[in-house]
Amino acid sequence: MINVFQPSLGDEEAAAVAEVFASNWLGHGPRTKKFEAEFAEHLGTGPDQVLFINSCTAGLFLATELLELGPGDDVVLPSVSFVAAANAVAATGARPVFCDVDPRTLNPTAAHVESALTPRTKAVLVLHYGGHPGDIAAIAELCRRRGITLIEDAACAVASTADGTACGTFGDLGVWSFDSMKVLVTGDGGAFWARDPELARKARRLAYHGLEQASGFSAARVSHRWWELDVRNFGRRIIGNDVTAAIGSVQLRRLPEFVARRREIAETYDRLLADVEGVRLPPRLPDGHTGSYYFYWVQLDPAVRDRIAADLLERGIYTTFRYPPLHKVPAYGTGHGALPGTDEASESTLLLPLHQGLDDAEVRTVVDELRKAVENRSSGGS
Fold it and tell me: Where is the signal peptide (predicted)?
């Protein structure tokens, strides 16, 4: 099976884990701090602003907790987004308010966001679809002008920038995913970033039970009763550990080669699919933007999209659509209004395999089988 997503792990990662085992310290420790500092440098921000956590989802819940969202608050987010974003909002009692997206980029514009704002809007939570930065600079400016907190879900955008600024750092809070399907993987894991240093410190406390002093061992050097607790906020345990952080450090070093290969595959798709009638290719990145090439999507006639996906699956090629529109999920309420761009995109978009482990022969197989499937369905084949 040619998969949509697949990690690249090898001897370097195994050696890094072996070093952690040899140290006999598997939990949150020196390798975690090292990875936080390395990822902060990658983002171009301070190490104290970055926290390595156990998942991007945990980071989204942490963000809503830090903002003290609750009943009576609205949070605007694109309907084309991962379910974790809406869950993090709805779990607080706040209301997710879904905005539309551009049907080609599947990212919201500043105008889409602005049209969804309400007098109760406390935050905007945007996703960078497929690793494309989208209209993030304009959205950030809109939020600053309105005094609204901007949270960036940069799960897909670990290497994406807009005019030199890393995605995830345009707003006030940012989160990234390092799960097993992402570009940079640690198995499970994620990163959290806060612009405000005090908010970053509070996030660190909340990520480990709300404790002011996370380690009794380190407290022993400054307190004669180091085992006593100092809890000022009610937190949980979502911190990362040295095993996954060691993998992360290796993956971060390899990230440029991963992204370069993914770009090469995307460009090959662009070239080989350009003449296929009935297949629309993804829009090119604007000048000044760099992407992570997490998704490669084509858009097809909605009447045949699902059948083409089934045809490819029969031929050993797994395709999918991410993310199904959230405004149609009953759990988030009704009455979200018409979102035509979202509806158009969700009925026509199909993600093709894109990961750095694909070889040239597999890429050509995907192209050839997609071409055959489209031609067959377009001619009325069953």
Answer: none
Find out whether 97 and 121 touch, Cβ atoms under 8 Å: yes
If asked whether residues 207 and 264 sit together in one domain, one would say no
Q: For the segment 83-126, what is each residue's pLDDT rounded down to a tens digit?
A: 999 999 999 999 999 999 999 999 999 999 999 999 999 999 99
| Contact by Cβ (8 Å): 281, 298 | yes
User: In a 3-state reduction of DSSP, which class is residue 124?
Assistant: strand
Determine the Cα–Cα distance for residues 169 and 45; give it in Å rounded to an integer: 8
Burial 131-156 (b: 16+ CB within 10 A, else e): bbbbbbbebbebbeeeebbbbbbbbb
* Residues sharing a CB contact under 8 Å with residue 225, sequence separation 6 or more, in sequence order: none
**Last-in-domain residue among 230, 251, 272:** 251
Closest CA to 319 of 356, 372, 370, 284: 370
Question: Given phi > 0 = left and psi -120 to 50 = alpha, else beta, which region is 347?
Answer: alpha
Distance, in Å, from the CA atom of 108 to the CA atom of 101, rounded to the nearest integer, reads 4
Q: Is residue 55 part of a domain?
A: yes
Look up the domain containing 140 and give its range. Answer: 11-251
Q: Is 5 contained in some domain? A: no
Which two structure tokens, joined as six digits, stand for 75?
Answer: 């949070």
When divided into structural domains, the chain yields a total of 2
CA 309 from centroid of its chain's CA atoms: 24
Which of 212, 229, 251 is the last residue in one of the domains? 251
Kindly state whether residues 125 and 228 are assigned to the same domain. yes
Measured CA distances, 353 to 82, 207, 293, 312 (Å): 19, 35, 11, 11
